[in-house]
């Protein structure tokens, strides 16, 4: 289980969030650009550190302001899928997926075996030797996800995972991505500013506004909270129909 209670002063506002994500649960952070969503992921992964608070994952304390604990990112065992995927374009699919395992200095045979396992799972085995710069957007997303999952992380963080895909590819990849997250059986936090993704992925959804969680609940709960300006923008404004826009 992930527990976050952390604050950090940003340029335009103070970020202050508290959230919990159970094993096998997907929590979605939704909100306008600049609301602090990606910053929350970076605080959890250790790329940034809070000014105060505590972050725990299972029985491990990743950060504690009062306890002066700050575990480095490479020791947190967290899979982080960035919006840009952050792949190495000059390396093959195999080498990209193997990168984290090599950093952990696993034996060559163990690396090869585990990478092949995840390439098969992501239907990338036939592309093992291809440079990722030659792949489609959907294929690159699978490589990035395989690279995150091959570490067998305790937590998965995904920052706008569908943003780099064209609209036609998003529907099929949305289903594949959710299946992979569920199969991993670990807590997951997804950042998005698309209400459709929040409804599709989220077991729990948190609406972030200027660094604060303004609303939270199940997707069904948020569908009823149309008095909120951000949520209201996804619905038809007429009085005669119930059509939803972007959902």
Folded structure, characterized:
The protein has helices spanning 37-45, 93-103, 108-121, 137-149, 167-184, 195-201, 219-223, 229-232, and strands spanning 2-9, 14-21, 26-30, 52-57, 60-64, 69-70, 78-81, 155-159, 188-192, 204-209, 212-217. By secondary structure, it is of the alpha/beta class. The protein has two domains: 1-77 and 154-247, 3-Layer(aba) Sandwich (Rossmann fold), CATH 3.40.50.300; 86-152, no CATH class. The strands form two sheets. Strands 7-8-9-3-10-11 form a six-stranded mixed β-sheet, sandwiched between helices. It has a five-stranded antiparallel β-sheet with strand order 2-1-4-5-6, covered by helices on one side. Helix 5 (167-184) links the parallel strand 8 (155-159) and strand 9.
